[in-house]
Design a protein that fits this description.
Blueprint (H helix, E strand, L loop, with lengths): L5 E9 L4 H17 L3 E2 L3 E6 L3 H14 L5 E9 L5 E13 L2 E13 L6 H5 L9 E5 L9 H5 L2 E4 L1 H5 L17 H11 L5 E3 H5 L1 H10 L12 E8 L1 H15 L6 E5 L4 E8 L2 E8 L6 E8 L4 E7 L5 H9 L6 H11 L1
Length: 342
């Protein structure tokens, strides 16, 4: 998605401060915004759990790039439970344009040391906007089921790719602080099911692969191949293999030994079946150096079909914006994660 031009209307920084002082400064900035030409238009409270200060500022920049489309009060938390008790804060007011109108929204970045870092739910409560959803976005490892911030949230955002330790986009494999192995990540996500809606940014980024493959087999010419599938191969990094492989297993009820997972830089899916004794092949893949996903269906001695879909720009703000428009339980995703564990 295209970035949104923003400008800072005001900001305040406090060292070794108190929650009451932060709230007072935030209220002062809000009054300043009300006196400006911009109008306050928040649709949710977005709480970002950041494993480091660098991740915190990256998150603020990401939110600003789509802020005019999904204006929110952003509360970015950097917990340091092992340090001495201390609260540092930065509060800012940002203006952006949405639909030809100037709007403004707030960022609150809190670095919390000591015991309070283990009770983030109660810390966040005074900053949340009443009568609006509160969404908790975890930048590193998925939260534990007993996390008190989860208990206050209306929805939880995770990124299983980052949680497993794989950077987003086309970067290498150096994950953020707090990254967990693949199985631990999926176990942590499954533990949240039934307690709170979980939206996975990695699942959203894989949507083009899922949509293209579903479109390939959705027709009289190719659908019979699903009744006689001989093999299914999924390539990609660990998160893509787990999610796409789990999706295929749960939707197609693949027999044992049919699914093969192969490590690769980019995600791809390949199905091989038979239609009236003829081999039918379906593939969806992204080639190196391209921001395109190519889909191909071929039946031996019969029809063929190709399709190409351009990928969105490599910017986490796109997946985040998509996630915030669908804050609800996704049974297909949940089934894919459970099957991925198997």
């Amino acid at each position: 998605m295209a970035g949104v031009a923003t400008r800072t209307l005001g900001e305040w920084t406090g060292r070794a401060t108190k929650v009451g002082e932060v709230l007072e400064q935030l209220d002062g900035l809000r009054r300043k915004g009300q006196r400006s030409l911009a109008s306050r238009t928040s649709v949710l409270t977005l709480v970002v759990h950041a494993p480091s200060a660098v991740d915190a500022w990256d998150a603020v920049a990401t939110v600003h790039r789509f802020g005019g489309h999904h204006p929110a009060r952003s509360i970015v938390l950097v917990p340091l439970p092992e340090g001495p008790a201390r609260l540092d804060a930065r509060v800012s007011l940002t203006a952006a344009e949405a639909g030809g109108h100037q709007v403004w929204f707030e960022d609150v970045v809190l670095s919390i040391s000591g015991p309070a870092a283990r009770r983030l739910g109660s810390l966040v409560e005074p900053f949340a906007l009443s009568d609006l959803p509160l969404v908790a976005w975890y930048l590193g490892a998925a939260p534990e089921a007993g996390d008190d911030l989860v208990a206050t949230a209306d929805a939880v955002l995770v990124d299983s790719k980052l949680a497993i330790g794989e950077e987003g986009g086309d970067a290498g494999d150096d994950g953020p602080v707090g990254a967990l192995p693949e199985r631990d990540t999926l176990d942590a996500v499954v533990a949240l099911f039934g307690r709170v809606p979980v939206v996975d940014l990695a699942w959203i980024r894989l949507r083009p692969w899922r949509e293209l493959l579903a479109a390939l087999v959705d027709g009289a010419a190719f659908r019979p191949a699903l009744d006689d599938l001989r093999s299914a191969t999924v390539t990609g990094k660990a998160s893509a293999r787990a999610l796409l492989g789990g999706w295929l297993s749960s939707r197609l009820r693949l027999p044992p030994g049919t699914l093969h997972l192969v490590a690769a830089r980019h995600a791809s899916v390949r199905l091989v079946g038979r239609i009236d004794g003829r081999e039918a092949t379906f593939s969806v893949e992204r080639l190196a150096g391209e921001r395109l996903v190519r889909a191909t269906a071929t039946v031996e001695g019969g029809p063929s079909f190709t399709d190409v879909l351009a990928l969105p720009e490599a910017d986490p703000s796109w997946a985040l914006a998509q996630a915030l428009t669908g804050l609800r339980c996704d049974p297909v995703y949940e089934a894919a994660v459970r099957a991925g564990l198997a």
